[in-house]
Design a protein that fits this description.
The complex is a heterodimer of chains A (326) and B (309).
Chain A: H1 4-12, H2 33-45, H3 47-67, H4 84-91, H5 94-125, H6 132-145, H7 149-158, H8 164-170, H9 186-195, H10 199-210, H11 214-222, H12 227-255, H13 259-264, H14 278-288, H15 292-320
Helix pairs in contact in A: 3-15, 5-9, 5-10, 5-12, 6-10, 10-12, 12-15, 14-15
Chain B: H1 2-7, H2 9-15, H3 20-62, H4 84-90, H5 98-129, H6 135-147, H7 151-163, H8 171-174, H9 183-194, H10 199-206, H11 211-222, H12 224-240, H13 243-248, H14 257-263, H15 274-294, H16 296-304
Helix pairs in contact in B: 3-15, 4-15, 5-9, 5-12, 6-9, 10-11, 12-16
The chains are: A mainly alpha (326), B mainly alpha (309).
Chain lengths: 326, 309
Amino acid sequence: MTTRTDTVAETAQAPGVPPIRRRPIPPGRGGSPFRKAENRAAYMFLVPWFIGLFGITIIPIIASLYLSFTDFDILSAPNWIGFDNYARLFTHDRRFDNAVAVTITYVGVSVPLILAFSLTIAVTLNRGLAGLAIYRSLFYIPSLIGASVGIGILWREVFGERGIFNAFLALFGIQGIGWMTNPHSALNVVIALHVWTFGASMVIFLAALRQIPQSYYEAASIDGANKVQQFWRITLPLLTPVIFFNMVLLTIGSFQSFTQAFVVSRGTGGPIDSTLLYTLYLYQRAFVNLDMGYASAMAWILLITIAALTGFIFWTTRFWVFYGDR
Amino acid sequence: MAIVSLDGGRSDMAIRKYDREAVRRSRERRSRQRTLRHFSLHLLLILLLIVMLYPVIWMALSSLRPEDEIFGGLGLIPKTWTLQNYITGWFLFGDRTFGDFFINSFIIAGLAVVGNLVACSMAAYAFARLNFRLKWFWFALMLGSIMLPIHAQLIPQYIFFLRIGWVDTFLPLVLPKFLATDAFFVFLMVQFMRSLPPELEQAAMIDGASYWQRYWRIILPLSMPALVTTAVFTFINTYNDFFSQLIYLTNTDQMTVPVALRLFLDPSGGTSSFGGLFAMVLVSIGPVLGFFLASQRLLVRGIATQGFK
């Protein structure tokens, strides 16, 4: 992304001619007054961002690390209790274990499903179908409204005992259940709502598909490759950077899902904690029980998990992401 | 591969090169096959869309039927049409109407849009167009902050805002936007501003324009597409945002649409009127859909350029 202009400049060089290298002038002391002025101006433009970065982001994150080693409950001053919160979380807290399991299921099921759906629909739409723009907008609509409380409420009713999902099943003579009141099916309802919003990833895939040169397919079909082979040998490899991009975004986002589990379970994470996503449990600990120290420990575990997982996905790219001939 | 293709369909055409009639027929057959294939694809896609959007359409029409007709069927068209649900829903909270909640939501979302446009574009201008010490360090930090979960900062932030008495005001929701904490939009604008030719600014510099003028008069007007994308997405995200509003707004005076809708769900309050609820859910997603349809082309292009340009 950031290197595009550099590579263009390099390839523009005539072969054999050594590239003209401008020696960079070190900024600051010894630099020209113009550079000093530019340096100063840049930092002026960044003042609001700096205040936000430190005041809203970095200092609170460090503060929450400190709080995670205390028993802070807002009402009284924090007492240092060392690793007690972490020890309790990992050994004594059944609800925590459950929340971790629920969240892993949620992320592990919904992210692959969203990727599969969005890729399939994007490839289908990209086959030169008429009305691409209309389809794209319609498939995108759920992504716009899917995170709102209103849609969570609707979902609750759709999968309720008397909801239209059961009315639909009744057409085939199937007796439905209250999908949200059954602990075995409740999480699936929340996952379904998340998968419903695959349109955002689809739009990104569509944009990437358009950037694949048509000549690749022409060359392949002259060599006798059929459509299926073209998909596996051309489309998919060239899309891997975008699949990776979507996968990272979706994974980070899914770990932080909150609203829909909250709304669909009426804020409880029930039935029997079957929809108790990690963030929902964190919210209950922090703002219902006022266990701020405990919740801070949970927040840090989440932070480290997301960082580690993102790092891991980045590491795996060497095995499956295709960056052309670089 | 080459041998296969000689025996394949394509070579037929080469052999019958001069038989125009045959070429025409084969072309027709091919286009007929394609039409048929496209037709079945359209059918599949439309079917999928109907399944996906059916609940929303059903809710829209259910909000127009009397209470006792809502559940127990798949049907879309109401037997009796009524607007009663909209009136019930609008006034469901006694002395507060949904109008008040909308005003609160719009104030927060509107201020968030202004904040993001100003603060993110300023930071983006510095990152995209200026050279300064430690630039790449700060830029990496900015990119990294996109991935941070908000929960890691949430609790100390909340305690701070509580201590200075800002809980139950709009400030905790709006102030961060004026400090460019939505790093994602900074990144979006950096990507856009980088693509603008440097000559424009050089010309202005020779004419004696200051850095501020170069930002305000030249770069900002040219970055309109990125600004519109940021504005629309900031509005939709802030308007839909439930988590922070749930935490910071507990008073009915400051209550926003999502927080109010949530009250319908309270086990204590219960849902007294499903018709009213559906009507208000529909009204609540109205502004989002409206914004989307109004700026649709720009938006979709904006999303497409989010990650890579």
